[in-house]
Amino acid sequence: MQYRRLWARAIGVDRRVVIEAVDVDESDESIVVGCRLRVNAKLRCGICQRRSGRYDGGEGRRRWRALDAGTTKVFVEADAPRVNCRDHGVTVAWVPWARHGAGHTRDFDDQVAWLVTHTSKTAVVELMRIAWRTVGAIAARVVADARVLRDPFDGLERIGIDEISYRRGHRYLMVVVDHDTGRLVWAKAGHDRATLQCFFDLLGPERAAKIGLISADAAEWIGECATTNCSNATLCLDPFHIVRWATQALDVVRRWVWNTLRRMGLGDRAKQLKNCRYALWKNPEDLTDRQANKLAWIARHNHRLYRAYLLKEQLRLVFQHRGDEAIAMLDAWLQWARRCQIPAFVELYHRIKKNRAGIIASVTHGLSNGLTESVNTKLRLLTRMAYGFRSTDNLIDLCLLDRGGHCPPLPGRP
Ligand SMILES: [Zn+2]
To answer: Which of 225, 272, 274, 366 has the most beta carbons within 10 angstroms of its beta carbon?
Structure first.
């Protein structure tokens, strides 16, 4: 094999590119592969690849960092003239080995993208000999490229909407996942209606009309915004959040009982109650012996608190059933809670009654935010990894790369 063909292969270019010369740059001992484009690949718009008229020589000859040859850095070098595209105006001409505006070859970008989703920050930076900020920019290019090829908004039918907080609750991301593929579809910084509306604006009314089910946490504005935009969708409320409401109500009762006991001069009993929080919170099957004893003690000595506990447990059980059975259980629970005479749970009764349709949709379709929760766990890890990127957009690109199914295979592998 001719050495030119060999180098063409090594830097990942096809017959549209002619290798002119291979030299060593003495200043940093790197290998520089000089290239030129064949006539039919020349002078195309960097954005749409349409053949365009030459505008000027741009900044002359340019270098793109390619994958190393062994331990030696490799650069591709070529002219980078500018063309005048009918649609995009003056742009730097297209080259087959790199993405538009990139200082690295496509293979280099892809390998960095693959590594950042498979290994640590330090490993990527050390191995590829690039700055962490550059990794952010590469993630952005790779994701943008992948989303042009495959629009993740196409064919959406069942979505989950949630918000995650990071940097100790100072920053928020709104996220949308596709329940059918398990992928992260969209994310944006912020947590308000206007932020979420951006998603629906991108989606457009035609595709929004095809969405049949939406799972969301119980923040009312999320549900409202989603159902306003997707006229055919049923909103499923997340069981996890509903159970959390019940746990909060139980805690209100516990504190109330504790205060009452203290006021009555029954300090000892109050003390016993103070340490039973976990016994009340945990699922009964997960209780330790000590916690189970606590619970038995509450059952004997504090009927009101124990009833509140049973109400919480009964509501939790609703979500372990499906369809008609779950609906019957939910309605029985509503009847019980309505007459229970425990203010926190009467309040919860009104809240659940108001959201009954969303809860029924959830137990009927079995759609929960479990998927978004698991995506969120991963995203929180990524928010820590992304520290040092130039912008939140780079963080979102990293998330989409990892959870959006946009990570390319390693270059040169099928
Ligand atoms: Zn163009």
So the answer is: 225
Q: What share of the chain is helix, strand, coil (3-state, %, to 5)?
A: 50, 20, 30
87 CA from centroid of ligand 1 (Å) = 5
Say how many Å lie between the CA of residue 53 and the centre of ligand 1. 11
The dihedral region occupied by 61, where left means phi > 0, alpha psi between -120 and 50, and beta the remainder, is beta
Q: Which residues contact 131 (CB under 8 A, 6 or more apart)?
A: 125
The pLDDT value given to residue 368: 63
Confidence (pTM): 0.80
The pairing of strands 89-92 and 30-37 is unpaired
Distance 17 CA to ligand 1 centre (A): 21
Helix (H), strand (E) at residue 65: strand 61-69
- Helix then strand count (H, E) for the chain reads 16, 12
User: What separation, in Å, do the N-terminal and C-terminal C-alpha atoms of the chain show?
Assistant: 23
Helix H or strand E segment including 188: strand 183-189
Note the pLDDT tens digit of each residue in 260-307: 888 888 877 777 777 777 788 778 888 888 888 888 888 888 888 999
- Provide, rounded to the nearest whole percent, the portion of the chain with pLDDT above 70: 99
DSSP for 212-239, please give it: -EEEE-S-HHHHHHHHHH-TTPEEEE-H
In the reported structure, the alpha carbon of residue 44 is separated from the centroid of ligand 1 by a whole-number distance in angstroms of: 8
Question: How far is ligand 1, taken at its centre, from the CA of residue 111, in Å?
Answer: 27
Tokens linked to 394: 């780079």
